[in-house]
TrEMBL record:
Full protein name: Phosphoribosyl-AMP cyclohydrolase
The reaction(s) this protein catalyses: 1-(5-phospho-beta-D-ribosyl)-ATP + H2O = 1-(5-phospho-beta-D-ribosyl)-5'-AMP + diphosphate + H(+); 1-(5-phospho-beta-D-ribosyl)-5'-AMP + H2O = 1-(5-phospho-beta-D-ribosyl)-5-[(5-phospho-beta-D-ribosylamino)methylideneamino]imidazole-4-carboxamide
UniProt gene name: hisI
Signal peptide range in chain numbering: none
GO cellular component, one term: cytoplasm
Enzyme nomenclature, EC number: 3.5.4.19
Amino acid sequence: MLAFGVGGLLPAVVQEARTGEVLMLAWMDAEALARTLRTRRATYWSRSRGEYWVKGETSGHTQRVEAVRIDCDADTVLLSVAQTGPACHTGTATCFTGRELPLAPPDADEAPSADRAPASHAAASDDAAPEAAAEPAAPEEPA
């Protein structure tokens, strides 16, 4: 049913159930997902430590899982949670707070053609698994 990717992992997008705000991105394997579904406590796989972690177990900033959905390709899960405290291990409300990239002005006329992929993506497919080295770092609980 689920299409686990490189290393047997799925990206888990986490959003606040009340507001819909995206809080963080983490990684789950089949066991982390099973633990989450069974306990309603968000449980992830730490790629850097090579172990499971329950969000908030050490920080107190817990995530009570309200719903779990899979995307149309069955290769990503969406957790809707009741977040207690900041979601990010840096202490910010979300892992995206204050980390916005600058966009070109709305009237910029050098927009790339929508029908042509950049040369660096020519051989890539939307269905291809990302390279392990290209995966973004997952948020981690403080040690």
